[in-house]
Amino acid sequence: MDNESIRVTVWNEGIHEKKNEAVKKVYPEGMHKVIAEHLNKQKGIKAITATLDEPEHGLTDDVLKNTDVIIWWGHAAHEEVKDAIVEKVQKKVLEGMGIIVLHSGHFSKIFRKLMGTSCSLKWREIGEKERLWNLAPDHPITEGIDEYFELEHEEMYGERFDIPTPDKEIFISWFAGGEVFRSGCVWERGYGKVFYFRPGHETYPTYYDKNVLKVITNAVKWMKPRIMKEHTAPCVKPIEKI
Amino acid sequence: MDNESIRVTVWNEGIHEKKNEAVKKVYPEGMHKVIAEHLNKQKGIKAITATLDEPEHGLTDDVLKNTDVIIWWGHAAHEEVKDAIVEKVQKKVLEGMGIIVLHSGHFSKIFRKLMGTSCSLKWREIGEKERLWNLAPDHPITEGIDEYFELEHEEMYGERFDIPTPDKEIFISWFAGGEVFRSGCVWERGYGKVFYFRPGHETYPTYYDKNVLKVITNAVKWMKPRIMKEHTAPCVKPIEKI
Amino acid sequence: MDNESIRVTVWNEGIHEKKNEAVKKVYPEGMHKVIAEHLNKQKGIKAITATLDEPEHGLTDDVLKNTDVIIWWGHAAHEEVKDAIVEKVQKKVLEGMGIIVLHSGHFSKIFRKLMGTSCSLKWREIGEKERLWNLAPDHPITEGIDEYFELEHEEMYGERFDIPTPDKEIFISWFAGGEVFRSGCVWERGYGKVFYFRPGHETYPTYYDKNVLKVITNAVKWMKPRIMKEHTAPCVKPIEKI
Amino acid sequence: MDNESIRVTVWNEGIHEKKNEAVKKVYPEGMHKVIAEHLNKQKGIKAITATLDEPEHGLTDDVLKNTDVIIWWGHAAHEEVKDAIVEKVQKKVLEGMGIIVLHSGHFSKIFRKLMGTSCSLKWREIGEKERLWNLAPDHPITEGIDEYFELEHEEMYGERFDIPTPDKEIFISWFAGGEVFRSGCVWERGYGKVFYFRPGHETYPTYYDKNVLKVITNAVKWMKPRIMKEHTAPCVKPIEKI
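^ inputs. structure came back:
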């Protein structure tokens, strides 16, 4: 797959943008559109979008078959996502597809399914300052990112974040109100990579921030599947004579 | 909870022992009874049993409330275990309960739910020799275990075992037929500990083996919950002035 | 070793307390004395002290032989610690002894030797507020510790802390000046446990703080060696016929 | 550095090849030459060699400055390698250089320095069969490697291998004599990657094996430094007003 584009599907439940005027003002066509547009400007990436209200939430077998990395944003409608679709997405991740879970996606069915934990956390929405410290300057995800970057106004997420010990921590956030958070974490599940990235409250222009977009773009590139392979449990013959 | 007994519930689907004469011969009352009897001989442990055919699979709210560590054996009837019960068991693990998943339990709903992966593997049932190498002689689980122990006849499980990177590997198995397997692995999920322990095919007297029983007993002691606490996602006030 | 006391040796270079009036005022007999006195008040712990200026830095073969857990504080004189002594301490850790490295001990020879990295970090000494978030409420080290605790005045240590990925993160600190730090981390090396615990600048009464003392005491108890065993590289006979 | 070649230095103590006729017969010019020749046939890789008997063991400041990945083979003369050189190599790894440690290099000063452990293991030299199981088919190191590969005759290394828990296990070996071994492991130290790869006894033609060479080549490509940066411990000003 080396010379082909990375095929990204940006999934958004797409609720807040329709119901909330404040969100509509920031993201008239939805956060997914802003992210996909940015990705489509990058060499070697082709992004499409999918939303909850489409048939099969826009994640048909055909779409999933042609997705290398999926990006997931959800909040108000986690429970409306059909279990059958979630299972398909998980299966595809285990086979090699990358998944970037954004912000309130921490409580999505797919993230909890991949983690096996409650994924609970503390939160507060007063638009305080967040500073993300870069713990992994040598990691592909932080290419072009300084030792930290700031978001002037964000929702706060605070520890304890109930997740399995990450394979690697990429960012830890400092919040003006006094909390900290493991804001960028990676895990492997099956042959697929999982990246949780905290920023992105719907009422702030976070997905226009150049650092946030850079991190997402870097993650997409890093997550390009190396293999895509089903998991089977074969009965095998002995290799040695017994 | 320091001076109280550890309360263990040994769960078994209890199918093979009823339908298969060979299994009935080895475990007339089921594997769960053999394990529970052994545990009940240990100071500080009180074990009960529960099976698939009991109401709520024997895992009522009351039973779960009074369980510190659950042991899980299943194979033929994984899909018959109700999702609602599996969710309760997972919730309890995340709150602090320990879980020991045995042998073919690798494909149980509860183990896959806690791991987030397919948990697939290779297998072969010709009763070959297994040698479990002790990688963690300093870990509570291996107290009294030598640098290795052998099981003369066992089903073979071979890599690649599709699990998340374990927090710690306790045993790696060598099989006469030429395979290897990560036979003892621990993870944390929420406040609970998970221990996967490979041996235990239903047609062999594995759960009478003194080393196997010692490992299970050690694991039970090590998994005694330190806290038992629900996971919540509270909205919190800033600690600092903003 | 179950019914015996845990034998702790609190090591301190003991420089600042002699040369600096401000430090002498806070710790007239040295930080090691304050820590050892607290530990000696705990049931099941017997603590002694050792310092740089004693013969063999107070860490003779006999002292090391009778130490279950060593606590290490150093800053001004890291390079004066003899390599031969450091090697003996490392050997003992690999054999099973626990080691708690405090604050500026991050740059000690023994910590860098156990980590294999530079252990560098950012720092600032203006006595700002530190808040340590408890990421592991189920871990023995945090018994009796709330979801966070504060130190009104401390030196700041900031990321990126150049350490190997910890086996488990216990605390992450928030600093008033805007930084974060992985303030409590555990690793295993050989059969021994390593706990790095950040707080403890010599000009502040940190080692009188009840939470700091509780964490150190908990860590001592948790680090009690389960085995004490030399590492050898034996030539072994085949177990199987070849 | 994206369009430039990866600069590899293959280091060998070069003792056995001179003193032992059996080794000379298999590797007339030394194992380092065979490995370097293979790497030089690969697009995008330029390999040189260095040996113990050269000035500064062939690892001058200039050579290290121009090395992206170092490969290390040693056995008989670990103690003859100068500490000052080992420290320079470690410093370079922490700054970003990759290091592949081969076979008996497990006891080299540089590997023990990076691990912090004794790196001891069991061994036996009767030329038995080794089968390396591929646990990470999605990892760059195993590109083109099947689910396992065999070496008909190799020295045996057996667990317990005294190393820190690897960030990821790539291979586990099965040996005909009954042992298992974590034969391919990766860790990060500073900004550099460490890969330990077990095969390579000097009396067998292991470094002519196509799978062994493929793994080494893949590892070299994967270890290409993303950054090359010194570690410092700066005193920093507060970012926030205090």
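The first helix of chain B runs from residue 16 to 19. Chain B touches chain A through 43 residues (CB under 8 Å).
thumbs up if we can close this ticket
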